[in-house]
Task: structure prediction
Amino acid sequence: MSLPVAPPVSGVRRLCAGALLVAVAWAPAAWAQVRPAGAASAPAAGSSGSLKDQPVHVEADAIEGRPDQGVTATGDVKLRQGPMTLTADRVSYDQPTDTARGSGNVRLATDDGNWLSGPEVQIAVHQFEGFFSSPEYFIAPTRAGGRASRWDFHGRDHAEARDLTYTSCNRDDPEWLLTADHVELDFEKNEGRARGAVLRFYDVPILAAPTFTFPLSDDRKSGWLPPSPTLDSKGGFQFAMPYYWNIAPNRDMTLVPVISAKRGVGLESEFRYLQPAHEGIVRLHSLPNDALTGDSRGALRLLLEGALPGDTLYKLDGLRVSDNDYWKDFPRNVASLTPRLLGTDLTISRHFERWTPYARIKTWQVLQDSDLSEPLLVAPYDRLPQVGVRTVQPIPGGLQFGFETEYNRFANPHGYMGDPRVQELIAAGVAPRATGERVHALGSVSWPYLTPGWSFVPKFGVNAASYQLDQPIANGPYQGQTKVSRAIPSFSLDSAWTFERDADWFGRDVRQTLEPRVLYVRTAYRQQAGLPNFDSAVRDFNVDSIYTENAFSGVDRVSDANQVTAGVTTRVLDAQTGAENVRLGIAQRVLFSDQRVAPDDGDTITQSVSDVLLFGSSNLSKRWYLDAALQYSHDLRRMVRSVVGARYTAPDYRTVGLAYRYKAGETEQVDFSWQWPLYGPARRERLSGTGTSCGGGWYTAGRVNYSMLESRVTEAVAAVEYDSGCWVGRVLARRQSTSTREATTQVGLEVEFVGLSRLGTNNPTKVLKDNIPGYRPLRDDPDAPAAP
Result:
């Protein structure tokens, strides 16, 4: 029979409320055992207030009771309120003692898949005191669970379990199993305490703790973190044991003592803070005595930002290391895209209505190779300081005004001039790099006319700069001068169109675009040979740079121009979603006069047309992605640069990528990456209820970058993975070139216990994600294709 119960309190409703409170208290306790990173916290005990006004539905073969005595439901009993469901063979509520009892196949479940079951449950409803005998439990987000001999409730904020087990494997014969003699849960303090915890892998104990504490929610808690061993060819085996210190809700610190078999004892630390107007991270690595070098070594990383009085913003981003070889020996601590050029950048700015003044100090640490036979690394200039103001704002008549002016003091980085390779160049008659001051002003006035299908933007601009140098100019038309000024006007017209039409491609409704663009630039010639070059470089020749007015970046060099750049792009879009399926384009620059300001003050550029730039990409098929950019030279009648890539992705952890990069006289590389099954099931087959199937499968993943000009592998990553269904094992080897004759090799080992944690060295999962396009961890959905 089925009996819906209305919200007014009754004996039956109290019975269901007691069952719900058991489930609410059980949920965070189960989650607390091994809540995965990023998982949402379960509601705290006693938080069922939001459910109290929801109706309770009771279904049973028979329901009987007496007023003020109690209610008994028997035969396939099912009580449901909101997301909670209680089923049992028999459920009774004794009103005088306020005690609810359930017996015979008792099961508490939530709509999101969590459940707790056992032969008997008894609870004093209002005091929320009682027990669940011999329960089993399952946590849906981790797809793991276990058993306990008894689960006791001591009020809404306290619970304890005895002889607890936890695994994501088949519980009758688990490959890994976490056990604890006794677990106490204090929701009021957000703390759990386990005694006699042991992690067994194939019945072999691999971790044990007499007692440890853990948080019951996403809130942070002080304590030791899992150990982190590493292994590489330079430092050998290293063992780190992190300790997390939760100083305050807005401040914390991680201290990591490190023991290296070859280098000795060191310490890594990270301090974080978050204030209403300030936030920052401070990282420090200290190795007082490196046994391999006999020196003290270390690194300091600062990332601080915030607001000062008067709406003034500041930001400090800096990294400094102890020596030139630090980036080779401790690559994990040099989080930089340019590991040999480490910058320190302090910026202070304030934004007014349309004006932004700023001040900046930018310095560099240049890590030159200790092998003097290696080429000299040319360093950027330090800016001590850089002070300026910029604005972009409309002015009457539909015009737009842009302006920037700066003062810079340029200096060589510390120690740069003392490098033996620099001294050799000076001794050979090469003039030392210029240092000094520069004031520049960049101004422009444009009249943009923009519509959805057409744009027309005429613009007039000026690049002016004045130099005060520390040494006289060594050669050229400005030879012997220390004060030089120049101003260069420029005019441009930029126009673009977009045409669209509906089409049918192989039975698919698509929208095709035709997007021509023309840019005319006229820039006056000014003699710049011999002037200092503090921050300019030739722009890379690509789709973006071909539509720029200056062939150089920075301020110090401005290319004279009387030229038109023309190109056209066509795209094929999905008519329903707007997703881009195909892109093809071509662009070329036509010079009406010679360009006399050439790279490195070299010869005049006399060719009337630039190289042709062709580019395209396609993901017309869900499994194939193609990408190419080609640069063709009319003068040489051949390709001078090309980047071509293709990637195939499919479900079941299948992805293969191949890329070819070529630049005449500089580089020629082949890059191959993959992730592919080797042997075993095509994908994991998980059971729907108590755990996962443990049919094993072997996989391989890796990436190899080969230089054809140098005839050597410059970087390689290779891994073998085994997925049993409830644990994943990985073995990884990585080799990185640090010079033409040196390389570092790292070995990574990792065991991931699905639903618990990872143990291993050198974090192979992160290495594979960072290096292999389309790589997906084996615990991700096997039926979904890899990311494009």
